[in-house]
Amino acid sequence: MSKTYKRYTDKQIEFLKNNVKGRTLKELTDYFNNTFNDNRSQAAIKGVLIRFNLKRGKLYTEEMLNYIRSLVDTHTTKEITDMFNKKFKTNRSFRSMCSARSRYGIKNKKRPGKRGFGIGHETLDSGGYVRVKVSDNPVKWRHKHMLLWEKHNRPLKDDEEVIFLDQDKTNITIDNLRMVNNRVGGILKTNNLSSTNPQETETGILLAELMLKTNDIDYRDNDYQKWHTVAHDNGISPETFIARVKRGASPKIAATVPINQFDSKIHTKGDKAHV
User: pTM for this structure?
Assistant: First the structure.
């Protein structure tokens, strides 16, 4: 049985011609389906584009770039992203907008007499975190999520960090942030206890805190001189031994597991601390 071919009206073809520029295939498909209350697939839309020789071209048209340029001096990149998507019916991410600004050299005006970006300018660092310029002299940048947490609470201590409950580093809202001890944060990362589900991450934090307390008890109650000796005999330095314990490993695991097997061993159960 042959498939039923869904024809496109002249109005729909004209719509694709007028909106193909500056949109990804997914954005164009979603925009088409929302406009005509249809359910065409990306493959179907791509077929029409090929049939009528409609090329998407650059992801950002000159109109789009001029719109971004008009906002950079008065809005943050996050605000620009939201306004851009609303105006052009797209779904660009914060990271995509940062990349576009960098690629096309779209920067906010420099303050008179000052080098670099103005105070309050936001950028994305190599780790995917949003940084904010907080000082010109000396030049100082800080992570936006830490600033927000401190605004609602207190200054962070040296042994504290702020994590994202849903793992989305651009979802910078106070409800999505949680302060934890650095050692708890290390256990979360080492044992993959974080999740995109905030409630599961909260549970992971409780488990990490329990594991930390268990290891602290082990550290007090066990003969650590013995384990240091065992570690030395296995070619493991005292510094490495202590670092392993801080990551959530028990004294036995920290002193006996070879370096090339440690990362895989620490995730297996069976040891007292289950790490």
Answer: 0.46
